[in-house]
Each structure stands twice: as C-alpha cells, then as structure tokens.
Amino acid sequence: MACGCRELEAQHGSGNCKCVQYREKFPDCKCEEESVSEYSPARVSDDEVLVRTIFNPIFVDQRDHLKPTYFQSVVKDFTERGLSVNRKGYLTQPVLTARLQHHPSNRHDYIRFIAVRCGDLRRLRFNGKRAICVYDSATEEDLSHADVCQSVSTEPNTTKRESRTLRMKTARMLQNEFCPMVTTTLANALPRHSEP
C-alpha cells in the first residue's frame, strides 16, 4: 500500500515528528496540494487567516504585543511536531473558547490570539526554497485545525550550531509575519497588514 499525505497525517498527526516526516517523505510542501485530513473542510488557501492561541502571559508585554522570545520558545512545534493554528473562517469564538478552557496548555487561565494570513507564510523562502508549509490537519473534534511546519531541513553533515541557526531564522520569520498585537477575541485577531 502506498503511503500518501493523508496516510502520513493519520499515522503521525498527533506525534512529535510530523513535520520531520513531511519534510523527508514529501519535500517542498508537496502535501499542500491535497487535503491531508479526512475531516478537513478543504485545503488551506492563501487568503485564509490563521489564528494561534497564546496560553502564557509571560510572552505578552504591557502593550499587549507578543514578545520576540515567543517563537523561539515554540521552535520544536514548527520544526518537528507542527505549530497548531486554527483557520478563522471555520471557527466561532464560543466554540473555540469552550474547547480551549480545558486545553492541556491552558495552565495559566489565559487565552489570547495572534493571527497571520496563510499566503504570507507560504511566500517565505530560504535560498529560493519554501521555508514554511501549512497543512489542513483537521480532527474530528476540530475541523478548523491546521499545522505550520518548517519546510527546509539542514543537510546531514550540518553542525548543531548551523541547525540551531536555521531554527532561529524560521522563528524570526514567523515573528515578522504574525501580527504582534495579542487580542482577547477571535474577531480582533487580524493579520499584520490589517493593523491600523
């Protein structure tokens, strides 16, 4: 039996190495060409707004802006297991808030949102290659779920320092694309270029 993108998602969707598997088996964001989840309403389009939930107030400054250290702290998410986001068009505030109240990451009783346009992530490049892939990794409980994965990997003979440099570059790219304004409502979570 051939292992396609949907089979990979079914096997590794909740694991710690999903992005690694996508990079190795389907390089250059190949799996964006089809829906990877049987529960997905559709592939993620470039014009969709993606929302990331912030659960820890330590990453938000006094002006309600995301601190630069946030994406460095979640580096394993976008390089290995997938940075979870929600597709704003398939959500409502009451449904999302109810789901997040009991989320394992919600240890501070703090729920805030940042947003980005999917196409703004997909246009990012490392040496002419796509830097970021976005997959429609919906689950039965959450049709809006998607994952952001680093698309490029380091060469096999790369040093630990060079690997870390690549991860930090990706973190800075994400920091520059997500709107820095942290909001309390889904309606106010807007992409960076929508800021006043």
Question: What's the helix and strand layout?
Answer:
Blueprint: H1 5-12, H2 18-25, E1 49-54, H3 70-73, H4 75-81, E2 83-87, H5 93-101, E3 112-117, H6 118-122, E4 125-126, E5 129-130, E6 132-135, E7 145-150, H7 160-177
Antiparallel strand pairs: 1-2, 1-3, 2-7, 4-5, 6-7
Care to give the gist of this entry?
The protein is an alpha+beta fold and 196 residues long. The protein contains 7 helices and 7 strands; from the N terminus they run ααβααβαβαββββα. The protein starts with a helix and ends in a 19-residue tail after the last helix.
Structure, described:
With 196 residues, the protein is α+β, with helices and mostly antiparallel strands. Helices cover 30% and strands 16% of the residues. It is built from 7 helices and 7 strands. It has helices at residues 5-12, 18-25, 70-73, 75-81, 93-101, 118-122, 160-177; strands at residues 49-54, 83-87, 112-117, 125-126, 129-130, 132-135, 145-150. Strands 3-1-2-7-6 form a 5-stranded antiparallel sheet. A two-stranded antiparallel ribbon has the order 4-5. Strand 4 (125-126) and strand 5 form a beta hairpin. The protein is globular and about 45 Å long.
